[in-house]
Amino acid sequence: MEGSLHDLLDAGIRAGLYPGCAAGWSVDDDTDMVHTDSAGVSHLEPNGEGASPDTWYDLASLTKPLVVTTLFLLALRQGALDLEMEVGDIIPEVGPYRSATLENLLTHTAGFPGWAPLYASGQTPDTILSVIRDLKPVGRPGGQVEYSCLGFIILGLVLEGVLGLDLAEAFSQLVTEPLKLSDELGFCPPISTCPVAGGASHPDAETQLVLNLGLDPATIPPWRLGRPDDGNARFLGNIAGNSGLFGTIRGVVSLGREYLRGGGLLLNAEEAELVAECRTPGLEQHRGLGWQIGSSPGCSAGPMISPDSIGHVGFTGTSLWIDRQHGAVMAFLSNRHHPGHRGTDLHPLRRRFNALVNGLPS
């Protein structure tokens, strides 16, 4: 079966889905053993350096559950935040979004638009709230699921305010240091000591999005190795609630294990259960706190893992699923947009990967 897993990774390379990848899994919730595999190369430019389990990948939107949800749970434990708090009571500058709750933000039901090129606004990162405030809501809080990077940027600002640290410092001090994962996960990895996979040096997809809005793509902040593919995250100093986290496959699986039933070394059982409850019944997507639920129509979980599994994907070609019934964690990392955009759908490969991992003996 493990041979089939490696064959799947190789097949993705032959199909042109990504230049290289790493996969990791843990299939027994009574052990901390993390299995890994890799294929392809981490760089096409300037050379063909091989991908390995030690390669650091841009995790993109895995930042949302791994950083923001985890830090939110710790702030909730301290009594610093509550799910029913309204955003306007913490950040008054959010204008029409004042009545949205933190639960709305975590479940993508706050009414924020999905995305906007904040860097094209002419504002600075310090004044970006005025730009978000002026964006028209897509609906009332709780009325719809609109997957929103902007909502998680706001959540990141909320957390920085209550924790008194920027997200990178908070994640390091409160999450990776206690879990001994500082060498596996973090923002702005030093490229002199970390083997970082190549990213979107030719940001074709974001350029087209900006052009579609009639804006100037020259405003997209320049990319360099070790910085996120996401232009808004780069604009905000490479540290944001929507994107910016980098990590190895071992780091992603290890932190994912904190969300298994019973919790882990950092999160307790009650916290692990809290995030996995579907809070969007009757809406078009099934969402927990920062996580997508496996029963959500069309998601990347696939039919072979439990419907109450929780997971997330990232635009760079990443995914993480946690099958809480079977005690399995499965992660797939790639740099599919290196050096330029690949518009192929990775969900079929992600579902096949999840099915293969769940077929492994524990």
Describe the structure.
- The protein is α+β, with helices and mostly antiparallel strands and 362 residues long.
- It has 2 domains: 2-60 and 188-358, 3-Layer(aba) Sandwich (Beta-lactamase), CATH 3.40.710; 67-174, no CATH class.
- The chain has 12 helices and 9 strands.
- The chain has helices at 2-14, 63-78, 87-90, 102-106, 128-133, 149-163, 167-176, 204-212, 231-235, 249-256, 269-276, 347-358, and strands at 20-26, 35-40, 57-58, 185-187, 245-247, 292-293, 310-314, 318-323, 328-334.
- The protein has a 6-stranded antiparallel β-sheet with strand order 2-1-9-8-7-6, with helices on both faces. Strands 3-5-4 form a 3-stranded antiparallel β-sheet.
- Strand 7 and strand 8 form a beta hairpin.
- The model has no long low-confidence stretch (mean pLDDT 95).
Secondary structure elements and their pairing?
Layout: H1 2-14, E1 20-26, E2 35-40, E3 57-58, H2 63-78, H3 87-90, H4 102-106, H5 128-133, H6 149-163, H7 167-176, E4 185-187, H8 204-212, H9 231-235, E5 245-247, H10 249-256, H11 269-276, E6 292-293, E7 310-314, E8 318-323, E9 328-334, H12 347-358
Antiparallel strand pairs: 1-2, 1-9, 3-5, 4-5, 6-7, 7-8, 8-9
Helix coverage percent of residues?
Answer: 25-40%
Report low-confidence residues grouped into runs of 5 or more: none
Task: Calculate the terminal CA-CA distance, rounded to whole Å.
Answer: 13 Å
- The gyration radius over C-alpha positions equals 19 Å
- The secondary structure category is alpha+beta
**Overall number of structural domains:** 2
Mean pLDDT: 95
Q: Which homologous superfamily in CATH is the superfamily of the largest domain?
A: DD-peptidase/beta-lactamase superfamily
Biggest sheet features: 6 strands, antiparallel
| CATH-defined topology of the largest domain | Beta-lactamase
Instruction: Give the CATH architecture of the largest domain.
Output: 3-Layer(aba) Sandwich
